[in-house]
Amino acid sequence: MRFGRAGPTARTENMGYRTAILGATGAVGTEFLKILQQRDFPLASLKLLASQRSAGKKLPFRGQELPVEEVTEGSFKGVELVLASAGGSISRKFAPVAVSAGCVVVDNTSAFRMEPEVPLVIPEINPQDIARHKGIIANPNCSTIIMNVPVWPLHKVNPVRRIVVSTYQAASGAGARAMAELQEGARAMLEGKPFTPTVLPHVAAFNVFSHNSEIGEDGYNLEETKMVRETRKIFHDPDILITATCVRVPVLRAHSEAINLQFTRPITEEEVREILSAAPGVRIVDDRRRNYFPMPLDATDQDEVLVGRIRRDISQPDGRGVDMFVSGDQIRKGAALNAVQIAEKLNEL
């Protein structure tokens, strides 16, 4: 395993990688366990780290029950790879400690995404950026990933000048507790009982509201700003025009997005379908006859981003506009899977 200048230079002989999951008991942490098993990721050892509150729990993995340990500054001794998804403040505290101990950290939080020296990677788009890491590699925001897996292959063929995106974001984006709160709220409302949310700012059941992140002076919330800034960094294109509107919807898992693209040159629906049919990480679901298109229920537990509603933007008579609708599993491709794919790419350096 050749992790580069800041990390291990040799894979543990014939055994795999000494790995730790930071935030192992959260929604993304448990998804890490599922994906590592499904993809037969090579492991010499696996350490599960979480807060003191979760210490002592046991989680199933490959026929065993692995104990969860409280994360401390000494937790990373002998570890080569850290998959982190425990929140930005935890990553800011412990990721540098892990790097100092010789680890490479693939971080799922927003803590390091916009740091110039930290690669921000979607493996289908910019795997070459991994090689310049200095110990930390950032996983993009889930909405950014789900949008750009299908946008990038089109951008490579015919550069996109402007993106207008509206998101329909599941409760999973706010974590396991938000998912549980959506279920509890739905039961309460169906039974005619009062319900007061404690995780999300508004009742999620049978409701839609603006994404629960801080609103900036420009009127954009933090999720919208992330999509703009992160896309520019991943594409290495500071001039691409992007505007986003991010919304929470009463869906348990898998985000959806309505995407409007303006290209440099005219492009047809047929060209878009041909490009996307060969694009990695994309599956076209676009049946006009049956009115069957991407849905969160179909995207749940899937690796691919589902793409449909592909059509010419009739408001752009010059033929440079295209609309499409996508759905992708926020916990999987939007978080855990993308991070594991980054770790797999590390081995190819």
Q: Low-confidence parts lasting 5 or more residues at pLDDT below 50?
A: 1-10
The structural class is: alpha/beta
Q: What is the CATH C level class of the largest domain, in words?
A: Alpha Beta
Morphology: globular
Radius of gyration: 20 Å
Rounded mean pLDDT is 94
N-to-C order of helices and strands = EHEEEEHEEHEHEHEEHEHEEH
Q: How does this model look, in words?
A:
The protein has 349 residues and is an alpha/beta fold. It folds into 2 domains: 17-140 and 335-346, Rossmann fold (3-Layer(aba) Sandwich), CATH 3.40.50; 144-330, Dihydrodipicolinate Reductase, domain 2, CATH 3.30.360. The protein has 8 helices and 14 strands. The protein has helices at 27-38, 88-100, 142-157, 176-190, 222-235, 269-277, 296-299, 332-346, and strands spanning 17-22, 43-50, 58-61, 64-70, 81-84, 104-107, 136-138, 160-169, 209-210, 241-248, 255-263, 282-284, 305-312, 321-328. The strands form 2 sheets. The chain has a 7-stranded mixed sheet, sandwiched between helices. α3 (142-157) runs parallel beside α5 and α3 crosses α8. The radius of gyration is 20 Å and the shape is globular. Residues 1-10 have low confidence and may be disordered.
Please describe the structure with a list of short key phrases separated by commas or semicolons.
349 residues; Rossmann fold; Dihydrodipicolinate Reductase, domain 2; 2 domains
